[in-house]
Amino acid sequence: MDAPNDVVKVGDLLVRPYETKDRAAVRYICYVTGYMGEPIDWQWKDAKSLADTFTGYYTDQEPESALVVENKDGEVVGYLLGCVDSRRAPTPEKVIIRHVFTRGIAFMPGTAGFVWRSAWDIVTDVMTGKIRPSDRKLEFDPRWPAHLHIDLLQEAIGRGAGSALMRIWLDRLRYLKVPGCHLGTLAENHRAIAFFEAMGFRKEGNNPPVPGERTRDGKRLHSQLMVQELN
Ligand SMILES: CC(C)(COP(=O)(O)OP(=O)(O)OC[C@H]1O[C@@H](n2cnc3c(N)ncnc32)[C@H](O)[C@@H]1OP(=O)(O)O)[C@@H](O)C(=O)NCCC(=O)NCCS
């Protein structure tokens, strides 16, 4: 991180820039928080492809925009992974499609069901008008070129680490004169939405259903775009 004040103590938690040695912990946290802060293994059993999709670009291509939270034992218990210019990062869909061909996730037990359900959802949602082709992807928007992912383990939640991560990230974007930031979450992730609103983001656009993903009792989940201008 280039901006000042990028190491902050929050109680006995420490927020600091990401280092290469944190990579495995970041990938682990992505997997065990993948369902709105809870493990996602009951619907996606391949940690590698999930971590590649949601952390790979950030840790490997833009590590200077990543921050981690450390507990008092020096263990990484959370992260914020940022991207200053979203045109540089591959979309999750692109990474997933790559894994269909390189890792066989469409035929792997534990992921195949999700992949085929996603394909089915996309076809039926388009046919029934629940999603329009323009809903499917978040086009690059120059008003909010940056984006982020943020996840904390349960032990770090509700202790101010999330807001410390976010303050450092938004300060960095202001320092770099980036005009705005967006993020994608689930409309059903009410805790995260309340947090993002407290951090200055607002809801934008509609809530198309997310292909493949389900609640534990089989209900559809919906995406929520959130944005914030910075000046
Ligand atoms: C969302 C998340 C990053 C928030 O981090 P956090 O450290 O728990 O949040 P903070 O303690 O810094 O809270 C900052 C402010 O956000 C708001 N907020 C946080 N949690 C909230 C909740 N459950 N309900 C309502 N408001 C909440 C409050 O305004 C809070 O300020 P306050 O403590 O002065 O009231 C964290 O809960 C998390 O990692 N959740 C699981 C993973 C996840 O859902 N990630 C987002 C995926 S898109």
Descriptive notes:
By secondary structure, this protein is of the alpha+beta class. The protein has a single domain (8-180), classed as 3-Layer(aba) Sandwich (Aminopeptidase). The chain is 34% helix and 23% strand. The chain has seven helices and nine strands. It has helices spanning 23-32, 47-60, 92-102, 112-127, 133-136, 161-175, 190-198; strands spanning 8-10, 13-17, 66-70, 76-83, 146-152, 180-186, 202-204, 209-214, 220-229. Strands 1, 2, 3, 4, 5, 6, 7, 8 and 9 form a nine-stranded mixed β-sheet that branches. The model has no long low-confidence stretch (mean pLDDT 94). Bound molecules: coenzyme A (COA). Residues 33, 36-37, 150-152, 157-163, 185, 189, 191-192, 194-195, 198 line the site of coenzyme A.
- Give the names of the bound compounds: coenzyme A
Number of structural domains:
1
Shape field: globular
Mean pLDDT over all positions:
94
Number of strands: 9
Q: Helical amount among residues, as a percent range?
A: 25-40%
What is shown here, in short?
This protein is an alpha+beta fold and 231 residues long.
Describe the protein's topology.
Blueprint: E1 8-10, E2 13-17, H1 23-32, H2 47-60, E3 66-70, E4 76-83, H3 92-102, H4 112-127, H5 133-136, E5 146-152, H6 161-175, E6 180-186, H7 190-198, E7 202-204, E8 209-214, E9 220-229
Parallel strand pairs: 5-6
Antiparallel strand pairs: 1-2, 2-3, 3-4, 4-5, 6-9, 7-9, 8-9
Helix pairs in contact: 1-2, 2-3
Bound molecules: coenzyme A.
Residues 33, 36-37, 150-152, 157-163, 185, 189, 191-192, 194-195, 198 line the site of coenzyme A (COA).
